[in-house]
Amino acid sequence: MQFTALIKHAALTGLVISSLAAALAQADQQVLIGLAGPLTGPSARIGKDLENGAQLAIDAANARHPKIGSEAVTYKLVSEDDQSDPRTAVTVAQRLVDAGVVGVVGHWNTGTSIPAARVYHDAGIAQVAPVATGHAYTQQGFDTSFRIMGHDDDGGQVAGKYALESLKAKRIAVIDDRTAFGQGLADQFVKSIEAGGGSVVSREYVDDKTVDFSAVLTNVRSKNPDLIFFGGVDAQAAPLARRIKQLGIKATLMGAGGFVSQTFLTLAQNDGEGVTALEPGLAIEQMPGGKAFEQAYVDRYKTHIELHAPFAYDGVGVLIAALEKAGSTDPQKYLPVLRSIDYQGVTGPIAFDKEGNLKNPTFTVYQVKANKWQPVSVAGGKP
Hints:
By secondary structure, this protein is an alpha/beta fold. The protein contains twelve helices and 15 strands. It has helices at about 1-25, 45-65, 85-100, 110-125, 150-165, 180-195, 215-220, 235-245, 260-270, 290-300, 310-325, 330-340; strands at about 30-35, 65-70, 70-80, 105, 125-130, 145, 170-175, 200-205, 225-230, 250-255, 275-280, 345, 350, 360-370, 370-380. A seven-stranded mixed sheet has the order 8-7-9-10-11-14-15, sandwiched between helices. It has a six-stranded mixed sheet with strand order 2-3-1-4-5-6, sandwiched between helices.
């Protein structure tokens, strides 16, 4: 009896093991995609917005029961917090590489994207920057670097042209935050102004931690400008707008890339009326898939898009499209596909030039009217 029971137990154990092996064989291969951005700190709202957009893309892809080659796969997002700090970004990039991600969507700003790019290049995997607009990011010569919105060389030129031709600015002051993004953007804006025959009457500098703009604005006021251009982001632009009004400076505040958010409107507390900003890409309601994306975002997260979630969605989407078209997660096979891809995203058509920049980028000019950002002009894009 004991021997017979032992045989039955062994047979049952073998059956269980065989069943488990069969189940494991049938399980989808997990493909890891990295997301890097500021998930904590002053810019955490932006990082979370990017993460939310990326996760929506992962969920949409998995709902299709995707395959790479003939193998069923499940995509998983692996998020890392770079705290919007260049040194942390390098550490985070290596952590994502070590985790075995096939590619990374990130980082948020130019200052973090540039140093992280070398890590991804050395590992041979794609970095698709959803936001970083400093041209220097794709000028490092890395064939693994891509971006899905226009860069600041183009943005600065468009902003300068708008300032001269539409705003009719004559005397222009420029302030930047000395970051790779802010200074680079301001430099390109100045070049555009000077090329268009405009006059930059004052060039001032702060840093990305400045909260009191009294000193620089005192200098600016003495130059009597009719427009002040700020190279920096929304969290600083809002107190800058308030201080301009408090000091009685009769000048339009203008910025680009990072102004157009609910955070700016909240922090400016109705002192942002008339502020003008140039943002890469189209307004959400003008994006080909914008309205549907916005509804999906609100349904899932019970809040509105902060700023750049659609670009993170497309960053994941175009990376997945390259993997599936190549039929492989091997970077040597999917990277050539990504470089030559023609992808229709939520934000618009996505294709890359030889540097990895978005071809035919679009820019939208916004103004604050009745404490809301309103799109007033569109430049660039396909004819």
